Structure formats: structure tokens, C-alpha cells
Amino acid sequence: MILILKPDAEHSSADYQLLIRYLDSLSGITQKVRHVQGTEQRLTEIYLLGDTARLSLNFMKSLPCVRRVVRVQEAYRVLGRHGQDDFPYSFEYKGVRFDQDSLHIFAGLCAVDTREHVEMMMRTLKQHGQVCTRMGAYKPRTSPYSFQGHGKVCLPYVFELAGKYGIRIIAMEVTHESHIAEIDEALTQAGHPTGVLLQIGTRNTQNFELLKCAGRQQEHPVLIKRGFGITLNESLNAAEYLASEGNSKVIFALRGMKTNLGDPHRNMVDFSHVPVVHRLTRMPVCIDPSHSVGSRHKSPDGILDVMHVTAQGVIAGANMVLVDFHPRPSKALVDGPQALLPEELPLFIEDIRIAREAYEKRRALVRSYQAAA
Ligand code: PEP
Ligand code: MN
To answer: Which long-range contacts (CB under 8 A, 24 or more apart) does 32-38 make?
Structure first.
């Protein structure tokens, strides 16, 4: 059972103390207090664990400070939406706000290869007003003989250049607990010129020990990719592992599902699930058009498939776009064939702006119909 308290309920107030004293007196029931930061308000939620079936909803609702009471049958206790939950959940990291209403582009290298390419990419991002990027240092590869990423060796120059070009957040995959420590060490050495959004890749969606580690630390938000061969429910439960350990700054990424039915795309594009994840959870939803499509094929209208599917995700309300770019795709050590070119960045941004505007118009249209009804 979750007690959602009235906004900004003061913990020092007599009412709050009264409520806690009452909850303490319930035998066989323990409490866990969580704070949820909304756009304008901070909300306190008290999770009651144990034999809560005997508690009456109406009585619990009559307790001081309590605004709403939710019986949680659903699996996603922290990240899920419960009942008529319309509280606007959001979090901020390095001055960038993430929620189900915002939209950020994380364009960058699938894998860091040379300092020169990192610098070319970041310079282009700055020219076009971008403050977020992706830079892979630890690469999970199908073959053990493929390039595995430069690992911690590249972190000093990646972070230094991020500072130089005003990059506030870098999405970076981690495949082992030790990578989080290496990133923290390198950030400290560099004087924290930027932030890192820890990425859990599709191969590690159900690496529960890694999830627990990323969930226990509170510094970095986490971008968790949907597992490419498991159900949506299983992937959302994986995200819940992060939150259950204490880190609810979680973004959920769709990146296509592994099936030959998606051919000639690398994966079956699943961006129709953007609104589904919005409905089931409070998480901002990211789309990764590069790993979904996997090529630079274009249709007769001249639009690349990568851009078509990006627009499809954005028009459905996506909140983040994670996308591969490379200044010299033929020299890229990972995923060159699907990379967009730096000179395509303004086109990509404008195409996204058009799709976003269409989404906002669709949303306004529905609201005006609802208001009239
Ligand atoms: C990536 O984003 O670089 C990546 C490896 O993606 P995924 O885990 O979705 O395959
Ligand atoms: Mn890749």
C-alpha cells in the first residue's frame, strides 16, 4: 500500500508526527519513505510493506497529511503509475530536466575511437546548441575478437573535451560494476566538467547484480535499454530493480526487438510502445533509432530510415533520442554503417522539431475535444 501525502507535507509538523506514530503502531507492517520530485512540488510517499490487506482504504485516507491511498498490486511499485496517478514526475541532472514531457537529443559516437573524432563530434554538437551526447567506452560485442572499447583509458580526454565544448551529460554504457567506479574516478580527476548518464545495454537488461549496483548509487541517472528478447513486462521489472535499490532517476529506452521479421532493419522497431511505457510507468522514454534500424538506407522520398523511425517515436511523445553519429563512418570501429554525419545534424534536429510540433498539436487537439465533451 502507498500513502501519497499532501504536497509539501512538513516532516516536522505535528500532523506528520501523528501519522508516523500511528503507522509505527501497526504490527507486521514496515514503512519506507520516498520523496518524488515533481516539476513544481516535492511529494512524499510512504510505502507500507507487509500485511496491508487488513487496512481499510477509507480509514487510511482519513489519516493526517494523507492525500491519496493506493493499493499496489502492480509489479512496478516505484516507477509504475498507480490508479489515477497524474503527479508530474521529473528529475534534473546537470541542469537538464527529464520527464515524460521533455525531449533531448543524445547524438554522438557509438564507440570512442580517437580523440580527434570525439573533438570533431563535440564541436559539431556545440555549434548546434546541443549539450548532451553519447560516447561508448565499454562496448559489449558479439565476438570476443571485436574491438571492446578503449575503457577507462579514453575517459580523461572524453571528459576534458566535454568540458571544453559545454557538454553537460554523456550517455555511456557500463557492463560491469567496476566501470561505475572508473567513471567516478575519472570525473573526479577531471574536476567534474560534465555528467554521465549510465547506460545499461540490451544485453544486460536482466543482469540483476549490475542493476543493483547502478541502483544503489544516487549520483548518476540510469538509461536502461529494453531487453531485445524478453517481454516488456520483464524489461520494466528490470528498471524497477534500479528504483527498488534507491535510484529512481531512470530513463527507459526502446531500441528494437531481435527477430528476423524486422528485416531488413537490424531489429524490429518498437517505438509504438512509447505511449505504452508512458501509461504504465512514470519514466521518460528514450528511442534509439540507430540500433533499431542499423543502416543508412533511405526510401524514395529521400528520407533515411533512421530519420523516419525517429520521427515516428517523437510524434508518439518520446522524451530522448539516442543516436549514432560519426565524422568518418568508414573509420568507425563500431557501427559505422548506421552512423549519421555531422553535417546531417541540423537536418536531424529540424526533422525532430517538426515531429515534436506535430505531437504537441495532436495532444492539444485531444485535450480540446476532452474539454468540450
Ligand atoms: C549502444 O547503444 O551502443 C548499444 C550497444 O545498444 P544496445 O544495448 O541497444 O544494443
Ligand atoms: Mn552501437
So the answer is: 34/78, 34/248, 36/87, 36/89, 36/248, 37/89, 37/90, 37/91, 37/92, 38/87, 38/88, 38/89, 38/90
How far apart are the C-alpha atoms of 100 and 276, rounded to whole Å? 12
202 CA to middle of ligand 1, Å? 6
Q: Which among 5, 2, 27 is positioned nearest to 16, based on CA atoms?
A: 5
**42-50 and 222-225 as β-strands: parallel, antiparallel, unpaired?**
unpaired
* Ligand 1 atom closest to residue 335's alpha carbon, by position in its atom list: 3
In the DSSP assignment, the letter for residue 20 is H
Ligand 1 neighbours, Cβ below 6 Å, are 110, 136, 173, 201-203, 225, 255, 288, 291
Q: What is the per-residue DSSP string for 194-237?
A: SEEEEEEPGGGTT-HHHHHHHHH--SS-EEEEPPTTS-HHHHHH
Q: In angstroms, rounded to a whole number, what is the distance separating the alpha carbons of residues 152 and 154?
A: 5
pLDDT band of residue 49 (cuts 50, 70, 90) is: confident
For 151, the grid coordinates are 575503457
Which residues make beta-bridge pairs with 66? 5
Cβ(46)–Cβ(2) below 8 Å: yes
Q: What is the pLDDT of residue 132?
A: 98
CA of 324 to the centre of ligand 2 (A): 7
Contact residues for 294 (Cβ-Cβ < 8 A; gap 6+): 265, 266, 267, 335, 337, 338
- Ligand index nearest the alpha carbon of residue 142: 1
Q: Is 220 left (phi over 0), alpha (psi -120 to 50) or beta?
A: beta
* 80 confidence band (pLDDT: 50, 70, 90): confident
Average pLDDT over residues 163-171: 98
- CA 263 – CA 367 distance, rounded (Å): 38
Q: State the cell numbers at 73.
A: 498490486
List alpha helices for the chain, DSSP H. 14-24, 57-61, 115-127, 155-164, 177-190, 208-216, 232-244, 274-280, 289-293, 305-314, 345-372
* d(CA 84, ligand 2 centre) in Å: 38
Ligand closest to CA 207: 1
What is the pTM assigned to this prediction? 0.90
Nearest CA to ligand 1 atom 8: 201
